[in-house]
Fold:
Amino acid sequence: MDTVAVRRFLLDTHGETIAETLQCADAVSKAWDGETVTDRAQVVKPLRALLTKRGVLERYPTMLAEAVEAGGERMQASPVAAPPYVIVTSTGPVLRATLPGGRLVIRIEAFAVARHALPSYSRTKASSDDALSVDYR
Structure:
């Protein structure tokens, strides 16, 4: 699978969804008392809720299926906005497709995790291009 082509496809075709994801992450981090939080729930729960409210979460399955096709593959089943296809993690949304030759993993990395005695979460200031990662293993 050509991950460079998949990444370019996602930025060109789903750039608005990626940008909206980052806007939701901005809104989540603005609700914090400071620049970071140590409670993972202050990232994941409000991000998932806001992505759902704005209709972004429901776009991820289509985004995933189209990314797989852009990479020259087809999914065996239609993805849904729930595990194992779509999950909202402490760094942002992760879209996953298991294919005959491997697994495609798409991440929109909106938050960074610093591992200390207690992990702390912070909003990255990455652009859509910087926040998007595509991996195939």
Summary: Residues 115 and 121 are 9 Å apart (CA to CA).
